[in-house]
Structures are given as C-alpha cells and as structure tokens.
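_Per-residue structure_
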Amino acid sequence: MLKILGKASSINVRKVLWTCAELDLPFEQEDWGTGFRSTQTPEFLSLNPNGLVPVLRDGDLVLWESNTIIRYLASRYGGTHLYPADPTERARVDQWMDWQATELNRSWSYAFLGLVRQSPAHQSADETARSIANWTGNMRILNAQLHATGAFVAGKSFSLADIPVGLSVNRWLRTPFEHADFPAVTDYFHRLRERSGFSVHCANGLP
C-alpha cells in the first residue's frame, strides 16, 4: 500500500491526497512536520534530505517533491485521464503545474506567511502589499486562462494541473485581504466542487 508522509494540513501533502482520491488509490498517511514528528530527524532525512513533506513510499520507491509525486501516481496507476500520454496535451498540463510551483508560489509567499501564519519575520506592510500585488497579477493570468478555456486550467477537461492550481485558488480565497474580482476563477472553484476528494482535501477550511 502507498504510504504518504506529511501532515494533512500541508498544501503540498494535500496535492498527493487529492490525487489519490481522484485515482481511487488506498494509502496510509503519517503526520510529519510542524506540530507532529520532526522532519529533521535522521530517519526522515534519509528519505528526503531537504527535510520537507510530502514523501511517498511505494514499495521500494521513495519520492519527494509534490508535483513529481502526483505525476508518478497518475502515470503509474492508470491516470491518463488526468495526465495525458500525448506529448502536446501533457505539456499543457505540465506548463500550469510548473507555473503554480514557481511563479504563483513565489508571489504569495510573503503575504501568506504574514497574514495567515502570522510569521514575525513577515510583518512588513510594504512587503505584504508587494506580495499581494504580485499574487493578484498571477491570479489575473489564471483568470484569463480560465476565461479562454471556459472550464479547467489546461483545457476543457479536468487534469492533474487542476489539483495544485485548485489548492492555490483555495489559498487565495482564504487569505484575509481585499481580493480583486476574478469571475472565471470563482466559477472554476465552484466547478471543482464536483470532483472526488475536493471537499476533503481542498475546500476543507484550510488555506
């Protein structure tokens, strides 16, 4: 059975849990990270030298990096409906997954840590405003893409990219500041409610 190491409140762990729900994969989940078992122990660092969650164990295979894990699961366990075999279609999915992991993540980091996590090191009003502005700019890009597809981020069908992006939209909506109005993003988030695992792993009260 798959084993997922990482606390369920982590956005990156939730990517893996939601993917398992979409693929109807049984798994065991162990809580690791702040408030639970330390990821800085020799035991955990032998699995992921970065000391970060999630870690996936599938038999003898050990994987870290959340987007790598969900790509593996879809490829290994019959998820071509989520992660197409066609190179062109797959590239569109990869593009938005990589964008979420780089451009979008970097833009929200300061504001999220200050406003939600209440980090003492992230309380500069100027830096928070700059982060929100950058975050808003990226959400504007997403809104335009969703307006163009009329459905999901990589096209007309739900794909693996919608899991990290959907979780990111949830984080956007739950971080307390005055949000710009992006109707296509709002419609998209409602559309995701039809997905298996959404209420448990995305719209679950966690940012």
Remarks:
- The chain has two domains: 2-76, 87-201.
- Helices lie at 11-23, 42-45, 66-76, 87-115, 125-149, 162-174, 183-192, 198-201.
- The beta strands are 2-5, 27-30, 55-58, 61-64.
